[in-house]
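Reminder: ligand-aware prediction takes two inputs, not one.
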Amino acid sequence: MWSTLRELRIQADWWLKGRLRWSAPARIDPVGDLEPWLADLPENQRARAEALRERYDLSSWSTGCDREDVELNLYHLDILDQHLSDVPAPTRALDVGCRAWWNLPANHAFRPAPWLGIELDGHQRYVDGATRAGLARRRTELFEGASYRTGSVTELDGPYDLIVWLLPYITPGAFGADRLPRRYFSPDALLDHVLGLLSEQGTLLIINQGEDEARVQRELLASRSVEVTELGRLESPWPAFETERYGFRCSVNRAAGVEGAR
Ligand SMILES: C[S@@+](CC[C@H](N)C(=O)[O-])C[C@H]1O[C@@H](n2cnc3c(N)ncnc32)[C@H](O)[C@@H]1O
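Here is what comes back for the chain with S-adenosylmethionine:
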């Protein structure tokens, strides 16, 4: 009874949100000159940040990266660099379920390709009246070639050479916390669709939260025609998130004819 009422309420909120799409102007508070900011970091983080800065062009961060998000973006860039540094320049790249796309600066620095961010719940509103989509679109204006779309990843066609998918909903608990209509909880169908978006030699990075999710993710991947490299627990000098994260690097390698292999 209570769960039915809760679901009805979620459905009603979702319907309303889909009709109230207007966003107040979204503001970002750009970090500006990175130099003094990096100089203040603890030694291990500064050394890693310098190494990343030598390898990647972070100049667009001064206008495009919010102060609050610099550490998170250094963390994300660190993870991309550690685990995907051999990925060739993509023709098109995709970030699945990117919310307001806090990690666009790192994605773009890592591979300055045309990135698309897709988010199902893009009309979710902040207290200042801006929506996720409004904020994300403001961010895309600051990174060449980036674009954002509100909707389900299942509406997209491929191919994409690089896909990042941070914290897909694969357990009911995490899904329930975000108050999305139940019909959107479909880990199997979404995984199949996202794998189908990969180009012949494309790479998908999936990141999950906690050991339980990692176990579920492992099982989901095991039953599919996909090559998987388990990255294990992700380590970084930036303790960016409270709950430990685990990574899976996937490719379908259609060109090499290894579909069916794991
Ligand atoms: C746990 S959040 C992760 C957000 C973001 N990637 C991050 O790391 O902060 C999962 C996100 O996926 C989105 N999502 C769920 N199903 C989706 C779908 N079918 N297509 C696009 N986005 C989806 C949710 O709305 C939510 O914002």
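Confidence is low (pLDDT under 50) at residues 257-262. Residues 2-19 form the longest helix (18 residues). We will return to this case in the review session.
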